[in-house]
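Lab notebook, page 48
Experiment: co-folding of the full assembly
Goal: obtain a model of how the components sit together before planning crosslinking
Operator: M.T.
Materials (sequences as entered):
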Amino acid sequence: MMTGDTAMRDIFFEECDDLITDLSEGLSAMRDGQTDDAIVNAVFRAVHSVKGAAGAFALDDLVSFAHRFETVLDAVRSHRLSLDDALLHVLQRASDVLADLIDAARDNLPANPAQVDPVVAQLQSFLGDAPQPVEDLDFEAVTLAFDGPDQPARRYLIRFRPNAAFYASGHDPLLIIKALQALGPTSVSVDLTRLPHSLAGLRWQDGLMGWQVVLDGPATDLPILEVFQFVDDLCDLQITAGPDDAAADPVPIAPAPVVEAQTDTSDRSGKRAAASLRVDPERVDRLINAVGELIINQSVISQRLQEASLPNTAELFSDLDDYKLLAREIQEGVMAIRAQPVKPLFQRMLRIAREAADMTGKLVTFTTEGEATEVDKTVVERLADPLTHMIRNAIDHGIEAPDQRIAAGKSAHGSLRLSARQRSGSIVIEIADDGAGLDRRRIRDIAFEKGLIAEDAQLTEAEIDHLLFAPGFSTAKAVTNLSGRGVGMDVVKTAITALGGRVTIASVTGQGTSFSITLPLTLAVMDGMIINLGGQTMVVPIASILETIRPKAADLSQIGLNSTLLRIRGEYVPVIDLAERMGHTTLPRDMTERVLLLIQTDSVPQCALAVDDIFDQRQVVVKSMQGNYGEIAGVSGATILGDGKIALIIDAEAVAQGNTSFPATNSHNRRDVPHVATC
Amino acid sequence: MSQLAELKKSERLEFVTLVAGGQNFCIEIKQIREIRRWTPVTVLPHSPDHVLGVINLRGAVIPIIDLAAKLGFPKIAPSERHVIIIISIEDRIVGLLVESVSEILGVDAGNLRETPRGPEDPTIRAILAIIPLGDDMTKVISLPALLAPASPVAA
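Observation: model returned without errors.
Model output:
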């Protein structure tokens, strides 16, 4: 009908995301038994709005699918269809397909008929041979929440009254109104003056109804004429341009009429447009960098002042403290801009879970918790792939087929729970199923077959579980469509490690498996322990430190020439000399003069890192080394200290695994990035 | 030598001349961001000999390379008198420690001569061209060649 520019398209797709969220929310409320009209209406409206807006962008696949979907929903709404499990299931699948179609349209990809057609057929089966219901004329206006147009808005009054030929040739006044709404905020009223007062004389084809649309829209009436381009001889049309509001109004409140109009229409539709600001993420990143510099600069200044030993500094330092607090506050505020709730991610996972359950023929109940938990945008984006993989794994390998479940004395429906919560500076995401649990014997066998372990290796349960993350490990007996495509859980682990996170597994045979992903709240700032190592200042992430210990001679025992064990609460843990791992060649000091950091990582249960001293515990701004230098074994990044010097951030896991030799001889089981500095 | 051809597209070229390992070299001025006095570095673990460490350049972490050592000369013992040339190629920013920086040299592109290929050695590999200067000559350093990852690192 018309070509929307890219900005319009972007807004349309963002709006669609919101609508899909509403749709999934409504559908899950319906599944939970809330089938009152308000919810059914909300679901109907969401689909309807997608259809209307998609029509304006000539996305035909989307429109025709949404139309079928909407027709079924309309039947539900008017109680011609009763909601049962089968119907709910189809509705949910339809909502997934709709979301996929939107995604496809966004990327300008064609729809995948293999995916769409079965659902269309299912939808159609519910409609049976019933005649297509006449479009509900009592529609509620839903306006896309547009940002103010770039050009000054002009107000148009559009009256149109379709005649019989309009209807006879299959046009729909609703689509026209939708297309107008896509042009800007509108208010629509219906003109019923020509309707006869008795039903006896009513012929609906006669074009008795007219509409009046007030549109705050484009600077010219060209787009409006385009909307009517195919029907202008089939209706009485009258377009009057109002005074040029924005230009004529001397008071600088140009956006106000737009905002008012929006609120007005959104209230009528019962849906509030979210007051949000769309910002280029790059701008936010620049701001975050600048704030990072501000914090470093603040600590430089305060350190310099302390060293300057000025007289009467009490007030100066109290001002400095204020400066520090303000800087922190700005930083938190800026970080909050990047924070996003995990909800859209979780809903996407629900779609994946439903799809996976359908493909495997398993019965699965999905629950999500903590959808409002906020995580850094990058984390949300980069979690999608690992989570997808884990969800598919849980359904494919974790949850048993219904008959097996019944045989095991469980309910035929498996349960899969996806939860997120914040725990002291980290985010914990958990994927738990109530399936068969890990088959440790098989994992062991496979690991041996693939040469990952020796036949007689003595492994604890946790160590066996951890083999899942070994590269090239895949437990699927047969390669299925769903998981086991040769990439395995090691990819998941790599992705999560790259985000500074950890994955742990807990599994009880017969009762289920749960994976916990622990992630830092933000990627740019980290809580670190500032340590001294051979005269150099370094940082160890607090997240990996369990406790700090100043050892007594009695707690340390030597094994051979170079190994030391620390006894702690009856357990023995290996002591790793960090100085040695970092390639320092200074003579080792006596362990009792040093400080031990008890470290826990995914792969090595516990170990103690020996450092020379600990100074402080503070937030540090993480700087990547990779851009200018490359990856350094045992170092995850660098930060800038109060005195302007650089301190390296220790990668506790790599150190504990012993992967710090350079060049790496075992880079294949580290990361995909070349393990080589480029200088 | 497409790099040299690229360079010869401009008629007039400017180079900053420097001394490293007692010899004359030069770097095209467009690749230089700034020149700083030597400041102490933070040493990196497991780094090759020619990498001195990293410094804080207004909030960015910049590696510092001993140009003499990188070109196969003995290492420079850095002191206050030495200078760091901050260069920028592609997306990377790197500091080069040199013994001294002398002058800005303007030459016609036609004066650039291709480096005669002798036996492979680390210095020649990193030389893009030579410029005759009366009785003397100076060597144009190719930063991409200088900073390219060392050919497959022996495992």
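Interpretation: Chain B has four helices and eleven strands.
Next step: discuss with group before ordering constructs.
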